[in-house]
Structure formats: C-alpha cells, structure tokens
Amino acid sequence: MQQQNCIDATIFLRHSRPMKTLATVQDVFAALGGTAAVRQLLAISAQQVSNMRSADSIPPKHYLRLSQALGDRYKLSPVIFRARTAA
Q1: pLDDT for position 58
Q2: How does pLDDT run across 10-50, given as a tens digit for each residue?
Q3: Does residue 86 belong to any structural domain of this protein?
Q4: What is the domain range of residue 44?
Q5: N or C: where does the chain have the smaller number of CB atoms within 10 Å of the terminal CB?
Q6: In-domain check, residue 49
Q7: 24 CB contacts (<8 Å, ≥6 apart)?
Q8: What CATH number did the domain enclosing 27 receive?
Q9: How far apart are CA 9 and CA 16, in angstroms?
Q10: Other Cβ atoms within 10 Å of 25 Cβ, number
C-alpha cells in the first residue's frame, strides 16, 4: 500500500507543476526536438521552418498542432504567433 501512495503522489506532483511558457520560436523548436522534428510535425518544407526561425514567428495556423504536440508540459505564448516587423 505504501508503494501505491508513493506512485499516486508522483503522478500528482508531475501534473501539478506549473507549465513552462514558451515565448520564442527557438524555445518551441527545442521543446519539440529540433528543426527536423518541427518540419516533420507540421509537414512543411525546410525553407518554411528556416523562415519561422529567422522571423522568430510562427504562422497562427500551426498553433493547434504545436499545442497538441507539447501537451501539458508547456504552454505557448501568443507573442510567437504574431507577425514580426523589421527593426
């Protein structure tokens, strides 16, 4: 019984931790396993992935798929889904 309580507590602690917010494209790519993983997940070209990284912005149409892939480990900041303007 003691072991069961320990397992239940571990599950509770894992799911009660606050989610980390990902606020940059770099953070999102790293959390998903890198550029190749993002490209495969979104079924897009390497050039499109490169463009996202350069602009530090992801097209809003990818929000749902990225959010689902990240699960309850992370939440996505809406900032990365906005168009960036050149400084």
Answers
A1: 96
A2: 555 555 567 899 999 999 999 999 999 999 999 999 999 99
A3: no
A4: 19-81
A5: C
A6: yes
A7: 56, 80
A8: 1.10.260
A9: 10
A10: 20
